[in-house]
Specification:
The protein is an alpha/beta fold. Helix content is 38%, strand content 16%. The chain binds cobalamin and iron/sulfur cluster.
Length: 482
């Protein structure tokens, strides 16, 4: 809640699908380590979305921003147009400072807009704390910003990028995210995107690690997290699970990590601690992200004991050469298929994650890849176009080809593949586009989430609200549907 005698910090999340752990960590770290903790108040505002379109108007955020000292945006590429428009309007109408953080600005810091005060590059807890402390001491001046590592800002003449910020170690130094700041909606959010046995249960979100040791060419993880993975301790992971179960009464846990706990020794210790504390079997794990080459019989047995029900499996493509180009390593199409079958046989719900539109993909390999969706027992899957996000090797490739640029329309990089985005998105494939569309079309209608009564109801209510408050966006959403 905003307070008159304090510094008020607003975080704007462009999604309301799940709470933003990032903001939770920034708050908890500041509250743990800053002596000025009592001088600050924080609030997280979540934009409403309908069918992947942000329906909150920039105006609403501008009105809110006027009451705050700092407004913070996490720069997701596909929402970047909205973030730029909103922050420009905030700059013109309010006197607050504007901070950008997260993946897009970390990949393209030199593009920090003139109306944004600071961009925080990479892991940002310590950077954020130092910036807020400057603010509270009345020292937020460009001459002082140069001493803060891991930021980009403007001085009178140019854009300055400071020294790279060291990553935090050990990771347990970062306290658990300040979940009390997440909306009530999220604390008791019901899961609807799943098998019947899990529908309607409460979900909590958790991170067990930061980073990823792999370097798939479509993913910015290696650049962003320095090609490494850091884990929270087993004790810390179990403490957070306990908090989710006992304080927030969740039945399901979703790990936000790039990859779920795949280190068998670590998972075994976590299970042991859970067992000792009577927490094992009190939750199920959903959407556990794994790579095919990490899965063996021993891990499968541990995953079962841990309570994992759903596994989101990076399949990408069923063309051997393209698979190697995309993710390197020893994954093969044959392994992809074998692992899916094995997981299904062991009773897991498997979500293959598929990438199409890869340069070099031909009609045959596209059809082979899509066959994965027909494996008996695969009830749902996710197909996306190969999207060149800034900071990835595939971005550099697309830039060389003149298909993307630092000043492009970021709407062209929407990950969700549907009848609209297929026409608008940057298309890296070397296949004839019409041929590609003809093959992919039958799969698009299935590339969607299961609708439940409560979900349809909330979409209907949001739709009506939108028609009254923002007819132009309502029209945009209708165009998306029809
Ligand atoms: C969980 C997750 C989701 C969840 C929750 C998202 C959320 N807002 O929390 C869901 C499923 C909703 C989701 C959706 C999408 N996601 Co996602 N997601 C992730 C994932 C796996 C983890 C996020 C997380 O919790 N990280 C842990 C925290 C600690 O790290 P962090 O988010 O980077 O935050 C740190 C810093 O970046 C910084 N920071 C971040 N923002 C800000 C803002 C300010 C002001 C400051 C000061 C600091 C700061 O501080 C944090 C602490 O150090 C990341 C990959 C990853 N590992 O980060 C992808 C990732 C963020 N997602 C990605 C994408 C593409 C999407 C979608 C567009 C996909 C889609 N269309 O369905 C949507 C966009 C939704 C949205 N508007 O946020 C990309 C973003 C790439 C890009 N350039 O934009 C990522 C990086 C995956 C990837 N490697 O490609 N996602
Ligand atoms: S796609 Fe997954 S495995 Fe590959 S680099 Fe990104 S996070 Fe790591």
């Amino acid at each position: 809640m905003k307070k008159e005698d304090k510094f008020n910090i607003l975080f704007v999340s462009t999604t309301n699908i799940q709470p933003s752990l990032s903001f939770g960590y920034l708050i908890s770290y500041f509250k743990k380590y800053s002596e000025l903790r009592d001088d600050f108040c924080f609030e997280i505002f979540e934009c409403e979305r309908l069918l992947d379109i942000i329906i909150t108007s920039p105006n609403e955020i501008v009105r809110k921003a006027k009451k705050f000292d700092v407004v913070c945006f996490s720069t997701i590429t596909e929402d970047y147009n909205f973030i730029l428009k909103t922050s420009k309007e905030i700059h013109d109408a309010a006197s607050c400072k504007i901070f950008f953080g997260g993946h897009h600005i970390s990949a393209l810091p030199e593009k920090l807009p003139s109306y944004v005060d600071v961009g925080l590059i990479g892991e940002a807890e310590e950077t954020f704390k130092e910036l807020l402390e400057l603010l509270a001491r009345g020292e937020f001046k460009t001459k002082n910003l140069k001493n803060i590592d891991g930021i980009v800002y403007h001085n009178a003449r140019k854009t300055i990028i400071t020294k790279k910020r060291k990553m935090i170690w050990p990771l347990d130094n970062i306290p658990p995210p300040a979940r009390e700041y997440f909306s009530r909606h999220h604390r008791g959010k019901k899961y609807w995107y799943s098998m019947d046995e899990l529908a309607g249960k409460r979900v909590g979100v958790l991170s067990a690690s930061r980073g990823c040791p792999f370097s798939c060419i479509f993913c910015d993880a290696s650049l962003f997290w320095n090609n490494s993975i850091r884990w929270f301790s087993e004790e810390r992971i179990v403490d957070e699970i306990k908090e989710l179960i006992e304080k927030y009464e969740v039945d399901l846990i979703k790990f936000n990590d790039n990859l779920g706990i795949y280190n068998k020794e670590k998972l075994r210790k976590v299970i042991e601690l859970l067992r000792k504390q009577g927490l094992l079997n009190r939750f199920k794990v959903i959407k556990y992200q794994l790579r095919v080459d990490l899965i063996d019989d021993e891990l499968i047995e541990l995953l079962k004991v841990f309570g994992v029900r759903e596994i989101a499996l990076g399949i990408e493509t069923q063309n051997k050469t393209l698979l190697k180009e995309l993710k390197g390593g020893k994954v093969t199409p044959n392994m992809n298929k074998k692992v899916i079958l094995k997981l299904l046989k062991n009773g897991f719900f498997v979500w293959p994650e598929i990438i199409v539109g890869i340069p070099g993909e031909d009609e045959h390999s596209l059809r082979e890849t899509l066959k994965i969706t027909n494996i008996k027992g695969v009830l749902d899957y996710h197909i996306s176009l190969l999207i060149p996000y800034p900071g990835t090797p595939i971005w550099s490739y697309a830039k060389e080809k003149g298909l993307v640029s630092d000043n492009m329309d970021w709407e062209e990089l929407r990950l969700e593949l549907n009848e609209k985005t297929i026409n608008i998105n940057v298309f890296l494939s070397t296949m004839d586009k019409q041929k590609f569309k003809d093959i992919i079309k039958p799969y698009l209608s299935k590339n969607k989430r299961v609708l439940t009564v409560s979900n349809v109801k909330s979409r209907f209510v949001n739709g009506l609200k939108l028609l009254v408050t923002n007819p132009r966006t309502f029209y945009k959403v209708m165009k998306e549907i029809l």
